[in-house]
């Protein structure tokens, strides 16, 4: 992988992490406060939903860091070394944690009493999105687990080849 491409992709991931930080510090709390101002009954659900949103973005940021580290390994030509498995484990953990956060949101919406200014469609959409996101996160985590297995096999085969040669 060319060095320029690695730097470009790592720059994009770094920008995504910074955008996530901006969202965690400014956008989410401000939007939540604005929504409560427009519809005061939202006050009861503001803190739990803001916390879940901030934690979910933190999971995405950890995933971005893991991907950046894997990109570095790809650029250095060291993907098939044992250290790569560590970053794969970090990625799996971040994806799984994000899935748990979405599952928590799903449960909170299912059993919580969330007020609605209209007919409740926004709550239904959030509920369905949380359900779909939970399933998607589980699927992606399983795919990365399979990829980690392939990576471990490739590392073992490379070590075996190095002994022969």
Write a short abstract of this structure:
With 165 residues, this protein is mainly alpha-helical. The protein is 87% helix and 0% strand.
Structure description:
The protein is an all-alpha fold and 165 residues long. It has one domain. The chain has four helices and no strands. It has helices at residues 3-38, 43-76, 83-111, 121-164. It starts with a helix and ends with a helix. The mean pLDDT is 94.
Percent in helix: over 70%
Number of helices: 4
Work out the radius of gyration: 20 Å
**Beginning-to-end CA distance, first to last residue:** 25 Å
Whole-number count of domains = 1
Mean pLDDT: 94
The parts where pLDDT drops under 50 for at least 5 residues are: none
Tally of strands: 0
Question: Could you state the order of secondary-structure elements as H and E?
Answer: HHHH
Identify the notable features of this structure and list them briefly.
single chain, 165 residues, elongated
Secondary structure layout plus pairing:
Blueprint: H1 3-38, H2 43-76, H3 83-111, H4 121-164
Helix pairs in contact: 1-2, 2-3, 3-4
